[in-house]
Design a protein that fits this description.
The protein is an all-alpha fold. It has helices at about 1-20, 30-55, 60-80. Helices cover about 70% and strands about 0% of the residues. The termini are far apart.
């Protein structure tokens, strides 16, 4: 639980940092967010495997956490895309 709490706190700090005016136009805060969320998704997949195939139990809070980290990962990946109006073409 402590690893999850620290992970979500780190994601929150990086997210708030990326909203600051000086960082809003830069891509690296979103890249860091996507990377951290990707690590979180990988760890969640491992924990889900342990739940299903080792201890044969499913925790509803773990499922909610897995869906949350997956949503953060998807949003962070979408944030990596360039806006259409800034593309040349």
């Amino acid at each position: 639980a402590l690893i999850g709490l620290l992970g979500y706190a780190t994601l929150l700090v990086v997210s708030l940092l990326s909203l600051q005016p000086g960082f809003a136009v830069k891509r690296w805060p979103t890249l860091i967010l996507a990377t951290l969320a990707g690590v979180g998704v990988g760890f969640t997949m491992y924990l889900t495997y342990v739940e299903l195939f080792v201890i044969h139990a499913v925790c509803r809070w773990c499922v909610a956490s897995a869906l949350t980290i997956l949503a953060i990962f998807v949003v962070a990946l979408l944030g990596q895309r360039k806006p259409l109006d800034s593309m040349e073409g």
